[in-house]
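Recap from last week: sequence in, structure out.
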Amino acid sequence: MVCWCRSSSSFVRVAYCGNWQSSLRRRLLHLRLKLSLPSPHLLLPFITRTNSLQIKTTMDSPQNDQIAPAAAQPMSKNAQKRLLKQQRYEAKIAEKKAQMREHKRTEVELKQKEWQEKLANLDEEEREKLIETRKALRRERMEKRLAMKGKSTERLQEARINGQNVVIDLEFAHLMTSKELKSLVKQVTYCYAINRRCALPARIWLTGCNGEMQNHLMRIPGYDQWFFEKEERSYVEALQDQKENLVYLTADSENVLDELDPKSIYIIGGLVDRNRCKGITMNKAKEQGIKTAKLPIGAYMKMSSSQVLTVNQVMEILLKFLETKDWKYSFFQVIPQRKRCESGSEDNTEEVETKDTDNEDDMNLAGIQEDADHKDSEKRQEIPNLDEEDGVEPGVDDQKAKRQCIGA
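Predicted C-alpha cells:
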C-alpha cells in the first residue's frame, strides 16, 4: 500500500508495511519536525490510495480558528464585571423611571378624584361657575407662557446680532465613554435653558458637532429649533476670519480674565473626563496659537478642590457677569457649596444673599448694639468671658451655675 501526504506546497510519497496507520503517524511527525512547522494543527489532508479505496481526512488548522467569529471567544473576568455593572445600572435606571411614571400616574388620579368629588358636592350653577373659572385660569396661564416665550425668542434673535459670542468645543467626543457623552449632552441642554431665561443672552456656538456626539444631541426633543449656531467644523475653521479674537477658557492658563470683551469669542472645552485628561485644553490652545485665560475665582473665593467647573457652570457664570458685571456675585450664585472652602464661604455668604444695602446697614447697626448690650451685662455679672476661647455659646456657664445652686 502507498500513502500520499499532501502539504500546502507538495506531495510526499510514503511506502508502508504492516500497520499502515502507525507508520503514517510516525512519518507525519518526522515531516513536521523537518519542516519546522509552528503547530501540529497544520492543515494536512491525508489521501491514502489503494487499488480499490481512497480515504481522505482533514485536521484542524489555525486558519479555521481565525475564521471563527469573535463572539465565540470567551470574555475576560474584567469584561464580564463591566458588562454586569452596566446591566445593573441600566436596570436601576429603568426601575427608577418606572417608579416616577407610577408616582405621576397616582398623583393625576388623586387630583381627578378630588376634582370629581368637589363637583359632585356642588349645585349645577356653582359647578358651571367653578369649571369656567378653572378654564379662565388655564387660558391666562397659557397666555403668560406664550408671552414669555415670545420675549425670550426676541432676546435670542437679538443676541445673534449683538450678543457675546461663546463657543462650546465638542471635539473631545473620542476621549469620552458613552456615559460621559450623555453627561455632556445634559450640560449642553442646561446651557440652552439658562441662556433662554437670561435677560442678556449670549450667542452660543456648538463646534465639532458630528459623529456620536451629534447622534446624542439629535435625540433631544426640539434640538432642531434651538437658537444655537451648530457647526460640524472646528471653531478654527468656522471662525477663521476672527482667529485673533479667540480666547480659550482653561484653568491651566496664567492669564486672569478681568472683563468680558464684546469683540472676543470665548471657548469652553466640552469635556467630561473626571480629571483623566489634565491640561488637554491648554495644550490644544497652544498648538493652535490661540489666546488663553481663566476665570478670576481665586481672587474672590477659596476652592476646596481644583478650579475645573462643568460646562453649564462656566456658561452660567459668564451670563451672570454679563447681567451684573460682578464676578463675586456670579461665583457665589453658581459654584456649589461643596466646592468651596468653609473660610471662604462664611466670609461672603451674607453679602451674596442680601441685595438691599439699606437693610444690610440696619442689620449691622442692630448687631453692633446687641454686642454692646451683651458686654454691659457681662460686666455687671463680673464673670470672665471664657466662652469664646472654649468654643461654647454664651450663657452656658450661667445655666450650669444655676443648676449647681439648685442641686445644693
